[in-house]
Amino acid sequence: MVKMRSALAAAVAFLSASVAAVSFSGFASDLESIKFAINIPQEENSNALYFSMSAPIETSWFAVGMGGSTMKDSLMFMAYLDKSGKNMTLSPRLSYGQVEPSFTPDVGITILNGTEVTKDTMTVSVKCFGCRKWKGGAIDPTSTNAKFIWANGGVGAIKSNSKNAAIKRHGSYGRFQMDLTKAVGPGGAAPLNTTKTEGSLQISEVADRNFMSGAHACIMVFTFVGLMPIAVLLLRVANSPRLHGVVQAVSASLALVGLALGLKVGMMYNRTRKFNTAHQIIGLLVIIMMVGQFVLGFLHHRMFVKTKAPTKLAPIHIWLGRVVILAGTVNAFIGFPLALNARFDLFLLGIVLFMVILSGPLIFWRWRRNIQKAEKEAEIGKPRGGGYQSEPWRGEVGRGDVDLGNYPPPPQPMQPPPMYR
């Protein structure tokens, strides 16, 4: 028993000495959004680094970027849960601006012991190869104020084994600096610390305030699920061509604004940068049809005002509008999964059902009213037979079924008395 205790004590002492022998520089953000530690092996000609990083478990992804204080030309290491949700996937990526970083196969990685997923945190410990220098940047072991950036995804989980996994825009991000001279020493896994080491400094930590993606979605849903059906109701139910035209103009203007936002957002992500997704292709076609439909409606109205007669443009305008509303709504359902927000399809479905429930009775009421109006007009124009006729000169005197024999023909319609002339 004594020998066993001695052996255990020796092992603990050896491990403690090994950990203590590893030089590292560490950083922890003020809000503990991310923790990071790095070790730079002092072996000559080594192009390897050891680093560890961790973030809260509710974060969908987290990353640290080396080489500068901006995303441009940074080498970023992005981590997220693997498919099982019990381990981590690490993806080395290069960033060339304020866009989603792209996976680079030029950097090799080895996952080390210490990588784990707990109920509170995700931690990854790594040795990377070919990561001291990369296209557009490098890390300088002699720098006492080396610049780094970091970012956290929003709440959620990616759960993917792919190093090319699509991500959503970061929910928070920041910058910090480190004294890398303190990280140079014998190579080994960099231990994470709960506080910053000497020479480490947080420069910033802010919440992301970019809402272009959300604005694009809200504008397009409001336009195709809200305004355009309202424009139809204003014409068919309220019988107001003027308000119909105004709402159509507002709809077309908002759709163009939404298109501009969509183009801008599309440039930010790898999955949409080439503009070859179904959502983007259908969206462009819908906008083209919408503009054409608005122009046809404008021309039809001008011609109708002059001639007071239906035009050949009217049915095209009507059917094109129906196609635009349907295609625009379907495209909204396609867009949310593309933005990795498929759960919002349920909210969209609720809005669509609300509009159907709201507009259905109104359209039916107007349809019944039109039928009743047509029947009334037909009844007024029909000649009346038998009974008292207060203005007999307004219609013909009808023949009965009595055989008149040789009776003279019926008299001609009477002339109205002078007071009616």
UniProtKB/TrEMBL annotation:
Cellular component per GO, a single term: membrane
UniProt feature, compositional bias: Basic and acidic residues: 393-402
InterPro entries linked to this entry: Cellobiose_DH-like_cyt, Cyt_b561/ferric_Rdtase_TM, DOMON_domain
Residue ranges annotated for the DOMON domain, each copy included: 61-153
Transmembrane regions listed in the UniProt entry: 214-235, 247-269, 281-299, 319-340, 346-365
Compositionally skewed regions (Pro residues) per UniProt: 407-421
rRNA-binding as UniProt keyword: no
Domain (Cytochrome b561): residue spans on this chain: 215-336
Signal peptide (UniProt feature, chain positions): 1-21
Keyword Transmembrane: yes
Superkingdom, taxonomy of origin: Eukaryota
Record-linked CDD domains: CDH_like_cytochrome, Cyt_b561_FRRS1_like
Compartment list: Membrane
Keyword list, A-Z: Electron transport, Membrane, Signal, Transmembrane, Transmembrane helix, Transport
Chain intervals for the UniProt region annotation (Disordered): 376-421
Gene3D superfamilies in the record: 1.20.120.1770, Cellobiose dehydrogenase, cytochrome domain (2.60.40.1210)
Protein name as annotated: DOMON domain-containing protein
Organism of derivation: Amylocarpus encephaloides
Lineage per the UniProt record: Eukaryota, Fungi, Dikarya, Ascomycota, Pezizomycotina
